[in-house]
Design a protein that fits this description.
The chain is α+β, with helices and mostly antiparallel strands and 698 residues long. The protein has 27 helices and 14 strands. A 6-stranded antiparallel β-sheet has the order 3-2-1-6-5-4, with helices on both faces. Strands 8, 10, 11, 12, 13 and 14 form a 6-stranded mixed β-sheet that branches. The longest helix is centred in the middle third of the chain and has 35 residues.
Length: 698
């Protein structure tokens, strides 16, 4: 930005600019001094004698004309030097800018805005972003530089250049670091008037100037704009007449030729469509769909329980197919009706039934195992379809049957606007692939649910009283509490910190309270096949240590988990107790020198015809001595010195055995590693990226 303009604005904001100060400022710029003297001695101002003195010449011009000349000429000098501006006809651009500047100043005066010159500059610069886009992308923007200045132009700019001229202009002005709302007035001059009702006056002034200079024939737009500044109905015509006279006069004084500017064509904004190879487009779409379906399948597989799976299905369908809402209807055990499956957002659907024998589009989609599309087109609809349309609050429905093998498990109903149906019909193959993934996951969940019910019936026979079940379940946290009390006793004797142990004790005591509170439950809740997700338990353990600030700043903990199934057979609380002890001992080993702890899932291994998951906890500490290694998993309290042989290792050994697992230790001068084999869950498999290894011993 020219220095003379920066100083002028600073003086104007300070409100201390008299003629001597203004003359001293102009005198520092030789080009501006010559411009002032030329205009003052022109026929418009020359009376009897020429004015060789700068201050006398400025007195003849008057303060308003001087400010106009300084601001306008500075801006023209700056932006006419932009690349590619010399090869473009800028007459219409500068006429529009000068008109907006004069209008902005006059509006500022009418609403008593304290800085009318600032408003003039804002109007002059409100479209300067178009020059910036022309300089940056001359080939892409050459046509649209002369296009009509409206919201369509902004949309085309955003689509083709990823930035609008309003954003580009505001970015340029922000670099000047002015203490002003000037950049904001440029940024928001295309915003609808109703959004600017409470905006800063300068923003509203520039919006009015833009509308009057570019859209004076749009009466509705003009009325909305003038209301922003409280202008009367006759104000627009008065302002435009005044602006026309002042712009013509200013152009003459500035030496700018605006002749013929109004005759230049002003086309609508245009964005040429990119060339598309239909085969390549189809191939890209198919590959994208394959990837999305694969991701959806993995998402479904990670869900815990049938309700979580249904939530994931409806949520994924809304995202992938732009459904406004979605519900699932499942086939009842007799196969004679579809029953609503409740979710967190749709509880009422549980009472909704669609008889398969009574016909209707939804029932037909399930019976035919084909996609169905339902719309309000004047033809009568079944009662069930009418209810679904009202329930989902949409105009049309997409019925996606959930087919697994030869059985239709139900129908996913998605609500869409009628204009979206053709797009959904074009994605029929993608919808069917999504339905197949959802049905497969749902069939697995239903199978597990049936197995769980059988197990529950068996357990109910053995445990007739709910109190016996609770006592049994309370045993795990009570055992943890008992073990940690002995650890606390030992650490307090050695005057070691016990904050981590106290936190664990508090957590387990809360869990005991919850279990005892469940005595009021009529139906016992028993897991059919206890399973622990290793990745989730590791996250819980790390959270526990971090919340207790037990990890020193010089110790780094790294987790390496495979994407494959990480479930094991066994109680997650027991696995949590094992990891807590091992990580705590590793931290103590590194607390002096610092280092790295790694918890790694190395995948599945086969030992003695049984599948295990290998979990390793290692550190880069000084290692264990032979004496400590010899008594490492002893059940008695160790009396040997050293921070890494901790009392908890005997507990770890017994807990691993309780899980029917195996544990081994490797230790040297570069660190210690505990390798644990835990029985893999019955549903777990070995991923291709991590092949099953056969081990003879650990």
């Amino acid at each position: 930005m020219p220095q003379i303009l920066i100083k002028l604005l600073a003086h104007l904001q300070a409100d201390d600019l008299g003629m001597p100060e203004l003359a001293a400022l102009v005198a520092k710029d030789a080009g501006m001094t010559g411009k002032i003297l030329t205009v003052a001695n022109s026929s418009a101002y020359h009376r009897n004698s020429r004015q060789p003195n700068l201050e006398q010449a400025m007195v003849a011009l008057g303060t308003d004309m001087i400010k106009t000349l300084v601001i306008s000429d500075s801006v023209f000098q700056t932006f006419n030097s932009f690349p590619n501006s010399g090869a473009t006809d800028l007459r219409a651009f500068w006429k529009n800018s000068l008109t907006a500047a004069v209008l902005a100043r006059e509006v500022a005066r009418r609403i008593d805005y304290a800085q009318p010159e600032e408003a003039y500059l804002a109007g002059l610069l409100h479209n300067v972003g178009r020059l910036a886009l022309l300089a940056t992308a001359p080939k892409e923007y050459a046509f649209n530089f002369t296009a009509r200045d409206d919201e369509d132009l902004c949309a085309v700019e955003q689509r083709t250049l990823q930035i609008t001229h309003a954003e580009a202009g505001a970015w340029l002005i922000e670099r000047w670091q002015l203490d002003s709302f000037l950049a904001d007035s440029v940024l928001y001059h295309h915003e609808p008037s109703e959004r600017l009702e409470a905006a800063h006056p300068l923003i509203r002034i520039v919006r009015v100037a833009h509308v009057l200079s570019s859209h004076a024939n749009d009466d509705a737009l003009v009325d909305e704009a003038r209301a922003l500044c409280g202008l009367g109905p006759d104000a627009p015509d008065e302002l435009l007449g005044l602006a026309a006279r002042q712009v013509e006069k200013a152009a003459i004084h500035l030496g700018i030729d605006l002749a013929g500017a109004d005759d230049l064509p002003v086309p609508a904004a245009f964005a040429p469509p990119p060339p598309v190879d239909p085969v390549q487009q189809r191939l890209s779409e198919e590959v994208r769909n394959l990837v999305l379906v694969s991701e959806v399948g993995q998402t479904f597989a990670r869900q815990q329980g049938e309700s979580g799976l249904l939530e994931a299905m409806t949520r994924s369908a809304r995202i992938l197919f732009d459904f406004e809402n979605a519900v699932v209807l499942l086939e009842n055990p007799t196969g004679q009706a579809l029953i609503g499956a409740p979710t967190a957002n749709q509880q009422r659907i549980a009472e909704f039934t669609v008889p398969l024998a009574k016909g209707g589009a939804v029932a037909q989609a399930a019976l035919d195992r084909r996609l169905g599309f339902i719309r309000r087109d004047g033809r009568p609809l079944g009662l069930a379809e009418e209810q679904l349309l009202r329930m989902l609050g949409t105009e049309s429905l997409v019925c996606l049957p959930l087919v697994a093998g030869a059985r239709c498990l139900g129908v996913l109903i998605g609500g869409v606007a009628t204009w979206q149906l053709p797009a959904c019909q074009k994605r029929e193959r993608f919808l069917q692939a999504f339905g197949a993934q959802a049905a497969g996951a749902l069939e697995t969940a239903m199978s597990e649910r049936g197995h769980a019910r059988r197990q529950l019936a068996h357990v109910a026979e053995e445990y007739r009283e709910a109190s016996r079940r609770v006592v049994h379940e309370v045993n795990n946290p009570l055992s943890i509490i008992k073990n940690y009390l002995s650890v606390l006793d030992s650490k307090l004797e050695r005057q070691e910190p016990v904050s981590a142990e106290l936190s664990i004790l508090n957590e387990e005591i809360d869990r005991v309270g919850q279990l005892v509170g469940s005595l009021t439950e009529i139906q016992p809740k028993v897991d059919s096949a206890p399973a622990a997700d290793v990745a989730r338990v590791v996250d819980d353990v790390l959270r526990l240590f971090r919340t207790t600030n037990f990890i020193p700043a010089n110790v780094e903990i790294v987790v390496s988990m495979l994407d494959a199934d990480s479930r094991i057979e066994g109680d997650p609380d027991i696995l949590k107790q094992i990891l807590v002890n091992l990580v705590k001992n590793a931290i103590e080993a590194l607390s002096g020198s610092g280092g790295r702890i790694e918890i790694a899932n190395r995948g599945h291994v086969n030992r003695e015809r049984r599948l295990y998951l290998e979990l390793v906890v290692s550190d880069t500490g000084p290692g264990l001595s032979r004496e400590v290694l010899a008594n490492l998993f002893s059940a008695v309290k160790s009396t040997k010195e050293g921070p890494h042989h901790g009392l908890g290792l005997s507990i770890v050994h017994s807990l691993v055995k309780k899980l029917n697992g195996h544990i081994a230790c490797r230790s040297g001068t570069t660190g210690t590693s505990f390798e644990i084999l835990l029985p893999a869950h019955a549903g777990a498999g070995a991923p291709a990226a991590s092949p099953v290894r056969a081990l003879g011993s650990v």
